[in-house]
Please model this.
Amino acid sequence: MFFERPQNGGELAVLVHIDFPEGSNREDLQEFQELVLSAGADPVELITSKRDVPDARSFIGSGKVGEIADMARAHGAQLVIFNHALSPSQERNLERDLQCRVLDRTGLILDIFAQRARTHEGKLQVELAQLQYQSTRLVRGWTHLERQKGGIGMRGPGETQLETDRRLLRERVKNINSRLARVRAQRQQGRKARQRSSTPTVAIVGYTNAGKSTLFNALTEAEVYAANQLFATLDPTLRRLPVDDIGEVVLADTVGFIRHLPHKLVEAFQATLQEAAEADLLMHVVDCAARERDSNIEQVEQVLAEIDADQVLQLRVYNKIDLLEHGEARIDRDESGKPIAVWVSAIKRLGFDLLKQAIGELLAEDVFDDDIVLTPADAKLRSVLFDLGAIRAEKYEDNGDILLSIRLQRQDFRKALVQSGTEIDRYLPEPRDFWLEH
Model:
């Protein structure tokens, strides 16, 4: 990748966490420590403080800068990591004052992503996010080269080294965006193929380290990397899962979410996150034993809204019931009896039958599986259904009518009826208001 991560690992690091009042600057300390360990750093000191607002120049104020510098020298640490997003100028000022490298929360998350990416697509997405992040920080690395190039054959008008680097960076970003566009096109083709075969897609989403990959592996007998660490999975994996009364569904494991997930990462991983936005059902996996459970749920809902997936049918899956004192597998239902949550343990394989039952009930509501009769005048509807791959059997009657046995998502059947100019009420007797709302 353009910005390779050093491979020696285990860097001594001083951690800095500022306890701001409730608001956009507030971060979780325990999560910060887990992020640092996931990145492979060796924390030697944690410095905390309280402020109402960040300092414009150094984020933490001159007094704390001196304290951090003393701690870094005492431990021989060459890295200071902040649990907050720093502006490029704050980062440069801190590095000048501390005489060591400074990394903010966004840079830390990007570093973890760079370690975890395995597929070509994942590496491209991480590199794009890194480039976009570094574009505002290039001056830091080239301050000593902000002069015209010199030397034999290099004299005369030209661009500074900094300008050259910015131009190369823009070209690289353009190249990666072009390659990711092809990836998105390929994924879109795959989704269309699944739609034509009427195979529902269930996307697993949730806060990082909620147990999504462990649940995915246990349900599908796959071998997706799963570990008790943040962002163990970056690259989406698709597997088929048989569900009673529905047949096979496609289960998609996706990247975990986190509070204040950098926007550049959301943009870079749009091709991956699109699996969630275009799924028929979202399985929102929650670590039910986590101290910040409710806050984590809220953060996931915010990211889902950001990628336009908040309107997708959702089933809450409370994982790790084995860590609760009186945890038991069960299905929670709303007033109408519709499943809204399932309590399971992925590691102990508890509640899987209930989970499949809930998935089947939710998806069955959206599947049209029946026989319909077409007249010779309905040839266009037959053609549309044939293109969707929805016709399972076909029989011609003596009077010219066609008996079709079809199975497809109810919303796709509605679209087929509209596309062919057929009255919806003829086959779907729901009130027209329902169709207009959807």
The chain has a mean pLDDT of 79.
